[in-house]
Amino acid sequence: EAEVAQSPRYKITEKSQAVAFWCDPISGHATLYWYRQILGQGPELLVQFQDESVVDDSQLPKDRFSAERLKGVDSTLKIQPAELGDSAMYLCASSLAPKSGSPGTIAGANVLTFGAGSRLTVL
Amino acid sequence: GDSVTQMEGPVTLSEEAFLTINCTYTATGYPSLFWYVQYPGEGLQLLLKATKADDKGSNKGFEATYRKETTSFHLEKGSVQVSDSAVYFCALKPYGGSQGNLIFGKGTKLSVKP
């Protein structure tokens, strides 16, 4: 069964250091999402890509967070510098969903498939 | 803004017990509603969904009915198994919102004892 791959699974870093997470979505999935899940909370969307373009980054703290999906396939989320409050699980998800209005939308195309996540601890 | 409230856990049940996890929402228009499940060490998986009022989503013995009059989407299962132990998240997609802009509840941890 196809999976969304994420690495690393666990990362411990000191505050003010840089950290990066990588995500490889399911092959053919046009849309990629990064979520942050703080312990005891539900996931919150950080950024959404449609192919290589950012569709929504309204919740991304742009002073320290950046995300890219240069070739429209895999994606990297970076935090620099990391702060104590960034400790969380970072989840990547993908969906088949093409751009709205595109012909031939497949039933279930908008279902998100999540990776196992990258757990960040900032000391 | 739109929000989801679900019952706090943890919930501990014996095998074959009846499960209800309450979920209510606040939203304008007609959101789509979802239940996701997160097994230990794994990512979130879509369990079931409903896209309009009175729809019933079902999967793996779990059911939830979209009740617009009570703005609820409670998750039920008639007989839980140890393998159902996981964290369950209720979520909504705002009407007209982008596909990824799901708003999640805080999650309810379910533990099923043999």
Question: Can you describe this structure?
Answer:
- The complex is a heterodimer of chains A (123) and B (114).
- Chain A has 123 residues and is mostly beta strands.
- Chain A has strands at residues 5-7, 10-13, 19-24, 31-37, 44-50, 53-56, 65-68, 75-79, 88-95, 113-114, 118-122.
- In chain A, the strands form two sheets. In chain A, strands 2, 4, 5, 6, 9, 10 and 11 form a seven-stranded mixed β-sheet that branches. In chain A, strands 1-3-8-7 form a four-stranded antiparallel β-sheet, with no helix packed on it.
- Chain A is globular and about 35 Å long.
- The model of chain A is unreliable at 100-107 (pLDDT under 50).
- By secondary structure, chain B is mostly beta strands.
- Chain B has strands at residues 3-6, 11-14, 19-21, 23-26, 32-38, 44-50, 56-59, 62-65, 75-77, 86-93, 103-104, 108-113.
- In chain B, the strands form three sheets. In chain B, strands 2, 5, 6, 10, 11 and 12 form a six-stranded mixed β-sheet that branches. A four-stranded antiparallel β-sheet of chain B has the order 3-9-8-7, with no helix packed on it.
- In chain B, a hairpin with a 2-residue loop joins strand 7 and strand 8.
- The N and C termini of chain B lie far apart (41 Å).
- The model of chain B has no long low-confidence stretch (mean pLDDT 93).
- The A-B interface holds A 4, 31, 33, 40-45, 48, 55-56, 91, 93, 95, 97, 110-117 and B 4, 36, 41-46, 89, 91, 98-107.
Quick structural overview:
With 123 residues, chain A is an all-beta fold.
Mind sketching the topology for me?
The complex is a heterodimer of chains A (123) and B (114).
Chain A: E1 5-7, E2 10-13, E3 19-24, E4 31-37, E5 44-50, E6 53-56, E7 65-68, E8 75-79, E9 88-95, E10 113-114, E11 118-122
Parallel strand pairs in A: 2-11
Antiparallel strand pairs in A: 1-3, 3-8, 4-5, 4-9, 5-6, 7-8, 9-10, 9-11
Chain B: E1 3-6, E2 11-14, E3 19-21, E4 23-26, E5 32-38, E6 44-50, E7 56-59, E8 62-65, E9 75-77, E10 86-93, E11 103-104, E12 108-113
Parallel strand pairs in B: 2-12
Antiparallel strand pairs in B: 1-4, 3-9, 5-6, 5-10, 7-8, 8-9, 10-11, 10-12
